[in-house]
Design a protein that fits this description.
single chain, about 60 residues, alpha+beta, 3 helices, 2 strands
């Protein structure tokens, strides 16, 4: 069942340069903590963990 994009939902769009180097749980934790800082922090973590690919991160919150 698809519920749609509801109020306060957070959508994280990331390239494989992110998802191959940062665990899913850490991505969600950082996105929930601070959506404005999350992309930069996630890119820094991915680079620290190897950063061998392009890294793209977009975080959207439905307000």
């Amino acid at each position: 069942m698809v519920k749609g994009f509801l109020k306060d939902d957070i959508l994280v769009i990331g390239s494989d340069g992110l998802t191959n180097l940062v665990p899913q749980e850490e991505i969600f934790k950082l996105a929930k903590k601070d959506i404005e800082r999350a992309p930069k922090e996630l890119i820094e973590i991915a680079n620290k963990n190897g950063g061998y690919d392009n890294i793209t991160v977009i975080v959207i919150k439905n307000i």
